[in-house]
Amino acid sequence: IKKVTTETLRKLKFDKxxxxxxxxxxxxxxxxxxxxxxxxxxxxDSAANVMAGHExxxxxxxxxxxxxxxxxxxxxxxxxxxxxxxxxxxQSNPDKALDSAVRMMKEGGAHAIKIEGGEEIADSIRKxxxxxIPVMAHLGLTPQSIYQxxxxxxxxxxxxxxxxxxKDAKLVEELGxxxxxxxxxxxxxxxxxxxSLSIPTIGIGAGAGCDGQVLVYHDMVGMNQxxxxxxxxxxxxxxxxxxGAVSKxxxxxxxxxxxxxxESY
Length: 265
Ligand code: KIV
Ligand code: NA
Fold this sequence. Notes:
- The chain has two domains: 6-234, Phosphoenolpyruvate-binding domains (TIM Barrel), CATH 3.20.20.60; 238-265.
- 42% of the residues lie in helices and 14% in strands.
- It is built from eleven helices and eight strands.
- Strands 1-2-3-4-5-6-7-8 form an eight-stranded parallel beta barrel, surrounded by seven helices.
- The longest helix has 18 residues, at 238-255.
- 3-methyl-2-oxobutanoic acid binds at residues 23, 42, 44-46, 84, 181, 183, 204, 214, 216.
- 3-methyl-2-oxobutanoic acid is lined by residues 23, 42, 44-46, 84, 181, 183, 204, 214, 216.
- It comes from Planobacterium oryzisoli.
């Protein structure tokens, strides 16, 4: 199997072939997602939400993200594994940012890291890239800033914020980021950004003009019933499938149907 690299993603954009990405946080899921043929797997800090049940992504720690990344990497043969650096592990200064990125690569076994922001973290991006670590940027609705935004609504609808996003997108490319996630921004703006950059953009709620798409695994397989933004397409209804299977098991045990003779020694 030929492993996907940051160069592969660059070439996919050049060849106008769309890039696919999904999240995973554990070994078994990572195996299935890799087998399905995605180009890249994101160990997202959305683990704070879907794995741990937190309201926001802020509480998850670097140690916890490293653990999730180790689990995912063991299950992956082909996809490029990108891991989020969590809130508070890169914003304060470039040295700390590099230390966090190094831990994620060395202990976690990630192939690349992702961090949220543009100009305000430029020195950190530069430092991490200069250490030979591939960096994926993330602009638009950056969930680690949710308390500043106050809402999960679409970002950059106003010209001023759109201009700033375009500038930040150019900047992260100049700083050497290999790709850029665009989250929940108008499709026209995402198209404009994608056309103006040579590095690939990966969109979530950012329309079809991006060079690739990413979704949270639990959302796309329908495990997450409470979350249904317009941008989400559900491919399965696993919440009902799984709770239905559990309730069948419960009734089979209660009734004495399980285990039967063939299922006994
Ligand atoms: O943490 C995450 O899952 C993400 C994606 C939604 C881009 O950052
Ligand atoms: Na994230």
